[in-house]
Amino acid sequence: MRLLLLCVLCVLCGGAFAHAQDKGTILFVGSSIFHRWTQLDAQMAPLPITNIAFDGAQTDDWNRLIESRVIPVRPKVVAYYCGSNDIDAGDSAVRIAGRIRLFIDKVTKALPETRVVFVAVNRAPEKQDRWDVVDDINRQIQRYAARNPRVLFVDVNPALANADGSARAELFMNDRLHLRPPAYEEFAKILKPVLIEALR
Questions:
Q1: How confident is the model at residue 5 (pLDDT cuts 50, 70, 90)?
Q2: Buried b vs exposed e over 14-49: b needs ≥16 C-beta within 10 Å?
């Protein structure tokens, strides 16, 4: 079923892929947190952005799609958010982080001039019983990025949290998972300077 979904997405994303080839310097890859960022272009302007993320994506999906949807675009920067749906599927932090590293390794091997910006998995209220997994994934990728000059780790979770560490409920939709526009405004403040630096 997931393979069929991926085939459909390949067809549907064809237009976005062509657009990316024309415009893309910074390619946003991942799941719904990026896909539903409706003001991304405006909030990142004047940076050239192409967003090919899709709802429900897991790390395995992007590892399968990398050859057809990421590498041919030859972006200067890949902004990557994925792993949240893997957690919902019950997978372990070690396995999820391993697949994230595999994606990054494939990108940096195929595109020696490209940098990868990993956006930390969100501590969404819907995942509170598995925040330990969220935190473990983020720690593993942060350590990996510290050893790799072509990888940048961006932690957006402080913008989503109250002083006591609890989630800022007003930034999340009623599903307690997806984000409201003010959350993306906070994301943009954190992420845009990193992307500008990554382009240099």
A1: very low
A2: eebbeebeeebbbbbbbbbbbbebeebeebbeeebb
- Kindly report the pTM of this predicted structure: 0.88
The rounded distance, in Å, linking the Cα atoms of 178 and 33 is 7
Strand-pair partners of 80: 29, 118
Q: Do 154 and 117 form a contact (C-beta atoms < 8 A)?
A: yes
* Domain count for the chain: 1
In this prediction, residue 200 has a pLDDT band, given cuts at 50, 70 and 90, of confident
Instruction: Say if CB 6 and CB 12 are below 8 A apart.
Output: no
Q: Work out the burial of residue 175: count CB atoms within 10 Å of its CB; fewer than 13 is exposed, 13-18 middle, 19 or more buried.
A: exposed
CATH number where 8 lies:
3.40.50.1110
Report the pLDDT value the prediction gives residue 9, as an integer from 0 to 100. 45
Structure tokens at 17: 């892929």
Answer whether 132's CB lies under 8 Å from 171's CB: no
Convert the pLDDT of each residue in 32-76 to its tens digit. 999 999 999 999 999 999 999 999 999 999 999 999 999 999 999
Q: Which domain holds residue 96?
A: 2-199
